[in-house]
Amino acid sequence: MAIEYLGLSSLNGPLAVLEGVSGAAYDEIVEMTVNGKEKKLGRIIEVYEDKAVIQVFESTENMALRNTHTRLTGHPMEIGVSVDMLGRTFDGIGNPIDGLGPVLAEKRLDVNGKPLNPVAREYPRNYIRTGISAIDGLTTLIRGQKLPIFSGNGLPHDQLAAQIVMQSSLGDDTDEKFAVVFAAMGVKYDVAEYFERTFRESGVLDHVAMFINLANDPVVERLITPKVALTVAEYLAYEKGMHILVILTDMTSYAEAMREVSSSKGEIPSRKGYPGYLYSELASLYERAGIVAGVNGSVTQIPILTMPGDDITHPIPDLTGYITEGQIVLDRTLHGQSIYPPISVLPSLSRLMKDGIGEGYTREDHQDVANQLFSCYARVGDARALASVIGEDELSPLDKKYLEFGKAFEKRFIGQDPHDNRTVIDTLNIGWELLGLLPREELDRIDTKILDQYYKPA
């Protein structure tokens, strides 16, 4: 029989302390009744002797020490999951907000997930097509990978996220099921409305499950949103055999919510005021991606984070880089030149790319073309630095060709229309057209047989 506790010992921001508790467990969900009518949910985040510290999901508005009744449920935070969640929009803790009524759950799952046995994991293979050349060609996204996007305030990461949702697929010659789980944390109302309108108008909403936590929603809810989204993704992937792409934006809002709650608990801060367990909390989310042996589905993650002050050494991008398999970096200089998407290809990489491209996956020349484009674009930086010292007119004919290649590469390969959904073959063909601007003897990263087949001087 559930016991109901009358009153609270103290209230501090989103935290409530209950004394005289017996049998309470860490991560247990509690139901709180305010003034005998208003219902709120909370989660036990600390247990000490007969005291329990409760994180209140909704705001603690109207709550007082004497008007709150608390009931322990005996189970952690759970969400009812179903395939019918695709095409629906939910708030940060999984309640429908699209006016279409509740979802009939096929089962209820713990939002904290179950740890995957590393031995049961399969190595990621096969690519996911995003239709964006700078990603598909140079930092290819592989099924089961976690590939973050490092952005900055004012850069078009929201537009890029929406484009990836609209264009991503498993390719043209497959009948495997594919869907997207999209979670937005701490976004403004106009941004949330932009995502929903864009997905609806483009006709992709039927295979997208959206979880929206607004900036004015309780900060504690922000900590639950990615867990709820990943729980739905795992169910669709591992129990329904679907390939799921999870987009989490913005992980900086998640980390700042963690810092705020940690400060309310009086914990000793670590780097930049973030709690010392920031790494393990991020890892507990990022590691919920992958492929399980014997299961057809997969979970692939694209976390998006805005780097405070464009500082890639800030704790959030720094720790994210340790856990994930590469990164895609957005560049403010390219954005200033009206190049979209402003992806800076030199600091971007995909560590699993080599195992999901080439013959049998994309095309046999993919790896060679990517290597050569990276190498040539690095030479462009040297030529530009030299031109800034001695002037462009004084450069050698070869350096001038590299400058020409650099401008064309940024405009035609990196830059593309937001509605331009390129195939991998389109991307590789554009790469060869650009390499044709350079003398053949400069293309030293490509096999001679492949050069003979594809190289055409401009």
From TrEMBL:
This is V-type ATP synthase beta chain. Residues 355-455 form the ATP synthase A/B type C-terminal domain. Residues 131-350 form the ATPase F1/V1/A1 complex alpha/beta subunit nucleotide-binding domain. Belongs to the ATPase alpha/beta chains family. It comes from the Bacteria. Residues 11-62 form the ATPase F1/V1/A1 complex alpha/beta subunit N-terminal domain. Produces ATP from ADP in the presence of a proton gradient across the membrane. The V-type beta chain is a regulatory subunit. It holds the Pfam family ATP-synt_VA_C. HAMAP family: ATP_synth_B_arch (MF_00310). InterPro entries: ATP-synt_VA_C, ATPase_F1/V1/A1_a/bsu_N, ATPase_F1/V1/A1_a/bsu_nucl-bd, P-loop_NTPase, V-ATPase_su_B/beta. PANTHER family: V-TYPE PROTON ATPASE SUBUNIT B. Keywords: ATP synthesis, Hydrogen ion transport, Ion transport, Transport. It comes from Alitiscatomonas aceti.
